[in-house]
Amino acid sequence: MQADDSMKKNIWNLDEIVEKLPEYIETLKEVSEVLLSNLIMAGEIPAPTFKESKRVEFILDRFTEAELQNSSTDEVGNAVAILPGAEGKENILIVAHTDTLYSEKVDHTLTIQPNFVIGPGVGDNSLGLAVIMTLPFILEHLGITLDSNLILLAASRSLGRGDLEGLRFFLSNTDIPIIAGVSIEGVQLGRLSYSSIGMIRGEISCTVPEEYDWSRFGSVGSIVTINEVINQILEIPIPKRPKTTIVFNSIESGTGKFSKIPKSAFLRFEIRSESDDMVHEIYQRIEDITADISYRSGDEVSLTIYSKRRPGGIEFSHPLTRNVRSIMRSLRIKPRISPSTSELSAFIDQKIPAITLGITKGDRLDDDRESIEIEPIFTGLAQLVALLLAIDGGQCVDNK
Amino acid sequence: MSTINKWLKENTFHHSRFQNINDLIKEKEKQELSISLCIPTLNEEKTIGKEIVIFKSELITKYPLLDEIAVIDSGSTDNTRDVAGSFGADVYLAKEILPEVGAKKGKGENLWKAIYQLKGDIIVYIDADIKNIHPRFVYGLIGPLLYRKTIQYVKAFYERPLTTSHGVRPSGGGRVTEILVRPLFSLFFPELSALIQPLSGEYAVRRSLLEKIPFPIGYGVETSHLIDVYNMLGMEAIAQTDLDQRVHRNQQTRDLGRMAFGILQTVLSRMNSLGIISELPALNHTLRQFQTDDNIFETVEHNILEEERPPMIEIPAYREKMGYK
């Protein structure tokens, strides 16, 4: 459907926006192949963290093709462009991360079926990127011209050791005032994150020194030492309030051969808590444990921090959150409200109200058979368009 | 040799030269041409959806370079036709096109019937099993036809240098090309040996030429096209475009043996009809391959008969449809 004149004027009232949503969903189906094409073409370009340049180049081509303004990259490899608003007095930032969990060696071929798209990283976050790239086309097709400028940011270096470097860099170095941020994740539809929990991600490495006495008896090797580290971390008391968890994400050691005594071991962990003090208290305890075990075992046990997040965010009752919940309710999307450890924390550090939304349903995430459903995408897009209209209409400002 | 090098220099392109699709569209409109994409299929449900989504989005919705996307199916037993239809392709069963001429099995049959069914002045043929599909597979082949009127037939080839040095490196086609087709061309049609990948399944052709050439329905269709176009119009009518990398299923050597058998039949019969060789004996159409079962050798026989469809222009229904007298 091409926009008729009556749709060119923006709708300001949430009830009016919600009323339009069923029509939007039907119209959005007409842009299906453009979105899926962007999803496939971007998603098939490998983009492990720090090696995202080819994917970013593709995204920039798409921004240029859409005749966006200021289409450019920066020192950390972000792709950014602006869809100018009718008035351009305010700015809304839409962000999706460009990096994936998969190395370049993984076959990134995506398969498309009538109801599904399957392949590594398709939901996390090729779909999010496809939405960013297709949004100018979507708004044009719906006949919507926002009053605010829409800043489209494909943010680099988000995952793992990237530690949200792209988004942090952009927010720290731009002089454009941003009224609200929306972080797009491919999955799951219904995701609503408006706060970030405190977090530290780190790695404990254990290395057996070269001068190790291999003739000594008893249990030997780095696995024994890392096991002792785990045992002692498990003895750290975890409070019920504030909610706190320690997650052991991965452990790696040994060569798989019987004849070899393992010389190194690596344990990756995450401390999460609603309280920043609690995160740091537990981190301090882990630091003490590693130092103590290093001293007693004679192994080199060291601790490295990959990333940190401060807790924070907007209130449940903030108009941004409230409006999203209303939009979801009208679309019969069941909200999955959860704190986030992703892009939100970069917004929080800059005191910008922001939320994270999911676009569709997905399965087998973090697996190379990851899949997303096509049909719910249109509901997810309608949800995003409605939110943009609400923000643009000034309905998501907290006047408290 | 200098003729071959001249042709290589002047009639070999890289897809990047045609990446400004708006310019292609202007040329197309100026010349008042229509362009059809034909994808022949047989059980391609895993890759067909992606091809259609990308071509439709990039070459119809966003840039109207193509006028139609058609899937001509040989009777798939999987969901190929449903998948293709669900993403907006026009889907046809080969046997339902021109039913009065009957149905034959083979990819060439689909390509031939597409001439009748599709409306384009240019028809682009793209295989359905390409995993890394990209719009360049289409615009890279159309470009030379739009920019040089003498070019009638554009063939794809696939190159991807492993390094960026400018040194000399070997280049060529697959196993059947290098072991059979290029040696044959070098012996009998030396200029055609300049085609880097004569067997590639991707090519774009003007209808005015397509309707005048016969179509072997099996493995020999690509080879016979090149020989026929060369004999009718010379090398100036042929061009080739580098489309970079193509990722597809790898074929077993035994399958390639069957392909080579079909191609050899076609080339021999062409040489016979062109008077290059004479007194060709009746050809045996059975290829024998072998397998062992518990150390006992067994013969596996394949009957491969390279039947041929006449030039489409000789079919009365086509002449009527096109308004030819």
In short:
Chain A has 400 residues and is α+β, with helices and mostly antiparallel strands. Chain A is 36% helix and 24% strand.
Walk me through this protein's architecture.
The complex is a heterodimer of chains A (400) and B (325). Chain A has 400 residues and is an alpha+beta fold. Chain A folds into two domains: 5-196 and 311-392, Zn peptidases (Aminopeptidase, 3-Layer(aba) Sandwich); 198-309, Alpha-Beta Plaits (2-Layer Sandwich). Helix content of chain A is 36%, strand content 24%. Chain A is built from eleven helices and 18 strands. Chain A has helices at residues 5-8, 14-28, 32-43, 53-65, 122-142, 165-173, 222-234, 276-297, 319-330, 344-349, 375-392; strands at 69-73, 79-83, 91-97, 111-112, 116-118, 149-155, 180-187, 191-193, 195-196, 198-207, 244-253, 264-273, 300-309, 312-313, 336-337, 354-360, 362-363, 371-373. In chain A, strand 17 and strand 18 form a beta hairpin. The longest helix of chain A is centred in the last third of the chain and has 22 residues, at 276-297. Mean pLDDT of chain A is 90; it is low at 1-9. Chain B has a single domain, classed as Spore Coat Polysaccharide Biosynthesis Protein SpsA, Chain A (Alpha-Beta Complex). Chain B has helices at residues 2-11, 21-30, 48-61, 80-86, 107-117, 136-147, 175-188, 207-210, 221-233, 253-273, 316-322, and strands at 12-14, 35-41, 68-73, 90-93, 122-125, 153-157, 203-206, 215-216, 238-242, 286-293, 296-303, 308-309. Chain B is globular and about 60 Å long. Mean pLDDT of chain B is 91; it is low at 161-165. The A-B interface holds A 33-34, 36-38, 40-41, 44, 109-114 and B 45-47, 49-50, 53-54, 56-58, 61-62, 82-83, 86-88, 131-132, 134, 247.
